[in-house]
Amino acid sequence: MQVTRSMPPVPQPQRPCTREEVRYLMRHDEVFRTLPDSPGWICTDHGVREDPFMAKQNCWEFKKCGREPGGAKVAELGICPASTETQTDGVNSGKNAGRACWAISGTMCGGKVQGTYAAKIGNCLNCEFYQTVQREEKPRFETTAKILARLKKDQ
What we know:
- Helix content is 34%, strand content 10%.
- The protein contains 7 helices and 5 strands, in the order βααββααββααα.
- It has a 3-stranded antiparallel β-sheet, with no helix packed on it.
């Protein structure tokens, strides 16, 4: 997403926006105020865009479940299938299925391992993490139908 309004001079072609620049844009730019939440912005000579290298959290980082490879609870609970599902790597800007966990069987919610997608999706739609991913990725949010089709295609 790019904001085309003028900004204070930018000395480098591309760099993280300073707090002052973001404050300036929030005060003076109607378009910028309507952009979705983003963990970071890049300022360029042509405006502002989301920082593609600013890491967005995967589910195991957000939920702190400890089931990622090398995680604190792997011995007790096992490795989460979302952390190792490579067919969905990159979906919704995540690592493996880290930002598509709602489509993966065997993930954990509320301290319990969940079953299939059909059995757990009701809980997932109300999950704070799911809603965060949806908000951060709009309008690029990859729907569950597309994720499931990708998983089925690669089987």
